[in-house]
Amino acid sequence: MKVFLFVKKAAAKILIYASLLLAAFIALVPVVSCVITAFKPDEEYAATNVMELPAVWKSFSPSLAWIKEAFANFITAWQRADMLLAFRNTAIILFFVLLGSIMTGSMLAYVLSRFKFPGNGLIRSLFLFASLLPGIAMQVSLYRIMYELDFINTLYGYIIMQMGTDVISIYIFIQFFENISTSLDESAIMDGCTYFGVFFRILFPLLKPAIVTVLILKGVGTYNEYYAASLYLQDKTKYITVATCLYKFTGPLGNQYNLICAGLLITLLPALVIFILCQKQIYGGLTLGAVKG
């Protein structure tokens, strides 16, 4: 019996670790392929497979000439895709979208969780219903609204649209508000505090875990948004974003995948740096967001 249990536990561990190794392999192969491809010039990329190491790696030399040769694709991608403008536009969009989503989402959640009025449950149900609708199915009506408001091909119009399409953050804030005792509100109001004072001075500072969670979810979604940015920011000389700038390397005669991979690695760097510097806050916010409620 003991031998059977030992074999069963050993088989279970082997299966678990084999599954993890397989999942890691599947996740890492595209990343490794992208890194390898990013360092190959056009001729070498056309003549070799995607997993063959670049020739420049084999001739490594700690010199300025080698660095210039090795990172030639990165320099070309940065210049031809106008990635400086793309990062600037994306930074502006992220700042206002995240600020607007946090403020509107938290204030609306405060009203829905603290004030009981006719239609409260209906509004929550409508928000839930809206979150279940596929975004692509609503693009015809949304595009019409954007056109009538003259928001197409404007940065502020795109920012307003991105701020108004986030239902998940509202439910995250509602979930946190419902776990904060209403006695805090009542005590502050008895001391003469207004509802705005209760929200901004007492409750809003307690929403730090929820704010971190919303920043992660909304920030990643906005940073990687391609479809809406391509559809509503039509002037690709002024309103390119990080997600759309690499489209310049695609065309009817073929795609320059070595330059696309180099640009992708450049776009990954800001997110990687932020994750490394703020991983404690990120993990804390996601963990607290998972157990609340």
TrEMBL record:
PANTHER family, per database record: ABC TRANSPORTER PERMEASE PROTEIN MG189-RELATED-RELATED, LACTOSE TRANSPORT SYSTEM PERMEASE PROTEIN LACG
GO-annotated cellular components: plasma membrane
Pfam families per UniProt: BPD_transp_1
Designated name of the protein: Carbohydrate ABC transporter permease
The keyword Amino-acid biosynthesis appears for this protein: no
Every ABC transmembrane type-1 domain range: 87-278
Compartments, as annotated in UniProt: Cell membrane
Alphabetized UniProt keyword annotations: Cell membrane, Membrane, Transmembrane, Transmembrane helix, Transport
Main location class: membrane
Keyword match Membrane: yes
InterPro entries: MetI-like (IPR000515), MetI-like_sf (IPR035906)
UniProt-listed GO biological process terms: transmembrane transport
Transmembrane segments: 91-113, 125-143, 155-174, 195-217, 257-278
Membrane topology: Multi-pass membrane protein
Similarity field: Belongs to the binding-protein-dependent transport system permease family.
Source organism (scientific name): Candidatus Acetatifactor stercoripullorum
